[in-house]
Amino acid sequence: MIVIMQEGAQELQIQQVVEKLVDLGYDIHRSTGVTRTVLGVVGGRIIDTREIELLEGVDHVVRVTTAYKLASRQFNPEGTRIVLTNRSRRLEIGGDSLAIIAGPCSVENREQIQAIAGLVAGSGSAILRGSTFRMPFSPYSFPGLGEEGLQLLREAADQFGLFVVSEISDREQLPLFSRYVDILQVGARNMQNFNLLKELGRMEKPVLLKRGIAATLEELLLSAEHVMAGGNRQVLLCERGIRTFEGAETTTLDLAAIPMLKRLTHLPVLVDPSHGTGRRDKVIPMARAAVAAGADGLMVEVHNQPERALNDGAQSLYPSQFAQLVHELTGIAKVVGKTLA
Amino acid sequence: MIVIMQEGAQELQIQQVVEKLVDLGYDIHRSTGVTRTVLGVVGGRIIDTREIELLEGVDHVVRVTTAYKLASRQFNPEGTRIVLTNRSRRLEIGGDSLAIIAGPCSVENREQIQAIAGLVAGSGSAILRGSTFRMPFSPYSFPGLGEEGLQLLREAADQFGLFVVSEISDREQLPLFSRYVDILQVGARNMQNFNLLKELGRMEKPVLLKRGIAATLEELLLSAEHVMAGGNRQVLLCERGIRTFEGAETTTLDLAAIPMLKRLTHLPVLVDPSHGTGRRDKVIPMARAAVAAGADGLMVEVHNQPERALNDGAQSLYPSQFAQLVHELTGIAKVVGKTLA
Amino acid sequence: MIVIMQEGAQELQIQQVVEKLVDLGYDIHRSTGVTRTVLGVVGGRIIDTREIELLEGVDHVVRVTTAYKLASRQFNPEGTRIVLTNRSRRLEIGGDSLAIIAGPCSVENREQIQAIAGLVAGSGSAILRGSTFRMPFSPYSFPGLGEEGLQLLREAADQFGLFVVSEISDREQLPLFSRYVDILQVGARNMQNFNLLKELGRMEKPVLLKRGIAATLEELLLSAEHVMAGGNRQVLLCERGIRTFEGAETTTLDLAAIPMLKRLTHLPVLVDPSHGTGRRDKVIPMARAAVAAGADGLMVEVHNQPERALNDGAQSLYPSQFAQLVHELTGIAKVVGKTLA
Amino acid sequence: MIVIMQEGAQELQIQQVVEKLVDLGYDIHRSTGVTRTVLGVVGGRIIDTREIELLEGVDHVVRVTTAYKLASRQFNPEGTRIVLTNRSRRLEIGGDSLAIIAGPCSVENREQIQAIAGLVAGSGSAILRGSTFRMPFSPYSFPGLGEEGLQLLREAADQFGLFVVSEISDREQLPLFSRYVDILQVGARNMQNFNLLKELGRMEKPVLLKRGIAATLEELLLSAEHVMAGGNRQVLLCERGIRTFEGAETTTLDLAAIPMLKRLTHLPVLVDPSHGTGRRDKVIPMARAAVAAGADGLMVEVHNQPERALNDGAQSLYPSQFAQLVHELTGIAKVVGKTLA
Q1: What is the overall mean pLDDT for chain A?
Q2: Residue spans of alpha helices (H) in B123-202
Q3: Which CATH number describes the domain made up of A2-62?
Q4: What is the pLDDT of residues D324-333, one digit of tens each?
Q5: Which of B272, B281, C157, D256 is a plausible cystine mate for C164, CB 3.0–4.6 Å?
Q6: Candidates A4, A65, A247; nearest CB to C64
Q7: Chains that touch D (3 or more CB pairs under 8 A)
């Protein structure tokens, strides 16, 4: 922590700040400049910097350490790779591979999810998504099929040798999810549900953590830290749009988060252009852009009949669009040195 | 729903939109203008307007109905008043009364909470707050005293004839909370934890619902609707700052939300200037401003020894500041036709 | 400037940063901690901190000095008061006085501006506003009366002993404005038109500088510095709402800017609740709130016939509303130790 | 305009709204639904919709027409192509070509700009950029070389057969700029300087209009309309980042603006990843992403010696980075059906 005193702060004020910090168990290095004094503060317990900022004569306080450790790039400079295996294949997320997660917004019935699983497998993608325990904005919307949905999702995935990811929204669902899915997804609204994250930290399955729509990158990494602190180091981060002044019904997909996260953390970075844009005609260009910007993977919604989808049909691709997209992504991945996983 | 076609949309495109809507069970009223055609759409099930917006020739679609009903001003034009009673008094929130909820960030120990309860009662305020099951950003922070905290809070409140509010962060805590508190608080991060809201809808205690830092007013009201749809009509809304470009470590307190909410809903509107500003020196002016803007109440953090507080000391008022503030609020309340409850 | 190295930065990296800084003419104070090294950097020319941040091994760089000097609180700890005098009165803005600036959005004709000047004077307010050289969003909107408007505004003000403020949008208008107005207003869209600000720095009239809708407080103060650097120390700051996710057609009035600016600068702080909210029914509560939060003054739109106003009638108060508002403001001002100027 | 009445609005209220609108010269189509009444409003002069929204019984008002006409996609469904020609070549911006504008932040001296012009030409790019009349945030920063800068820029461009773009910040500079540049650039801070835009509407050179950091896409198009209304139809739009909660010292590059603008307007869409991210290590991935998302061109800062640049060195690419980037962009362009112009 560095304490920057105001220009013209009085000696007495500086002394009081120093005393307070010494009381709190810190060592102080004082630099007296021409215009102002700066205090370097070392050791002691972590305190709320605002408390120091409110002292007389203090201009502002700067934190030197990040609040996350395990998630920081320094912790694993090589970069983390997450490995999934099933009978038919071994999949690596991170490194030089590009992972494509695809599927419908919700699992609706056996026929639908099987048809889509076929599409996904046919495109060369390896991970099937589908919501089963939904938490819709309106109490009257389709809440998902629950356990039946998980069963159908697993069954369809197995038929095509795919891995499965689905969103968990409550601690109580953990036993069920650990039975059926390969990756546990945490939605944007639950990014700071630390009660849930703590439980996931005890699991042995990868966690796909979506960025909250108002979360800074530091907050996202702090949430990853909550999972990792429990022992589970397999965390995938996912950008899905942030709330800005541009349209309250949509979000602004923050693709610059990709290079920033690559600098800050060793964890793989995915992008969800479907929720991040909310409209099919924006999903395709933004999916391409995410790969061009260096994402380790995508999560894309595709549906065999988007206009009949129970949820989010508007952001689901048609089968032919999805096939065309994967083709384009393969070309872009090559330019940035990645290969479709 | 109103569908606004593009200028120069072709007759065939218009026909296709009409057919699609008729298929979905809607009645259509078509207005053909000089420059464009507008379709009024009535009945049918609720659909995702984006689905229509993506059709050829459509410019945009406007929703006519709000997604919330029970929370809307029309549902109770007089305005809702929430009544609390205990042995020593009857308290009304809403109408012409100004409710002040005060207390520490966290319940720390018996001595602390009793000292603060005395301060609160002495100022003429009637409701004591204090966190007990915390969900801190860092896994190393003080997590709260749990049930012991609830007991101490209740005990201190009873000693001074005060009511009690505390934040619940997980469904599992419900049995405990219903034993100890008078008002169930839902924090900003849980505003869209619909699993939790659904349970609170079955309770017979008032729910104090904080606005999420990225939530629009419509989303706040939709969350209130989730509670009300379960049968519990006693909801208090609380503005606590929104995330804007102005400082990622703080929020912008949106006081204009007060007159807007007064127009949109019948529910009482409170303001939390402590979390909304994060610094003691901003809490006081913003507390006064909230009352001047017409808030039905405030939730303010006060501590007997802010510099020793385990959490959020920087935003807690000193006892003398709190007393002075309540004095000023009384003066401002009179100007806007309210009286301290 | 303080350079915070990454945890685990290598000695060679640290040496290279030190050399680069020494090259640039800086003195370096190095602190080697357990987990990381911190470099205090003193003197030299001002450089772009990003240049250092991009060096190998650097975590981030913190600026210690503010970019504004003349506008900073330390420059004039007592606080600046701006004095206006005419034949009939002496008016002080700042200190314990509350200044109310009122008038129509645009000067429309002699009858209108005289009627409104009468209203303003009758309420006890001392400053008349009115736009004359407008810069409307649509090329088809009313552009203002130009010089004739300035004449009518001056004439109406003189009749009632009022001072005059009007917005200047281009350097070329300066000769005209200096003839007619007492305070030169710079609109939010011109807050960073440094060509214009430079010219205003040479004037001997107060400048009322509105905050841009995407401007941080530091940027606002840097714009004030541009004026002050030219020799003109009479600057009034005005909060008028910032752009947030809450409604692209309106802005969020950031009243917490008042206490923040009071801490950062010695310049008086005004608030414009009319442009800041855009609707008459929000103007009144937010005007009260601004005074309760400690503003030194308000700029409010009032019209003798709002429903016939050529611009912004929706945010203009009716005469009776304005009178009632001034009455309420007087009551609130008393609570915060101010008197209507 | 469509007026949506509140649920339960009284017949008298509806009548009053209708009368007011008829008074204003509108035709009204009334639809009486089960829950509410909707009024379709046709003709009359353009009015401020807020005026109607404030009437008793009105829920909200929806504008049907966009405020821009000439800039809308419908006005030129094929898409606008802007053609530049000089002795050595003909360049088209828009359509299937990808235009790369590159150069230093500022023109500093003959040697620098000639070296960079050589780099730009060598990469196959056709347009040279360089600021000459700067408007820096600090009064002490390098203000640019002025006319001398324009001369050097032109001279260097001519030597390599390049076109020239430079930013104009004041109407007074127009005669100079029209002598030296091929494209007139309007900076983000001047996007709503309608006085300047009006003058540019009379020119016969293309205008490159940057999006303001707080501007919606509709506002950007309305600014383009100001230019186009004057007769100049050659407008290039440029996304350069918007201000969000993510870091006040940077902006969030809104690449989804590309597909959105493609839908709304026929004008070519460029992206400036240099100003849009502010750091060299983010410029490269975001440049690639912009092309992948369908941009018609890029504006990128490159410098022969970034660490010695007078401004914005941190966001300027090294020569070898620039060459590598152009190579990668060529690969991505092919995937999206474009060719380097």
Answers
A1: 92
A2: 147-159, 174-180, 194-200
A3: 3.30.70.1140
A4: 999 999 999 9
A5: C157
A6: A4
A7: A, B, C
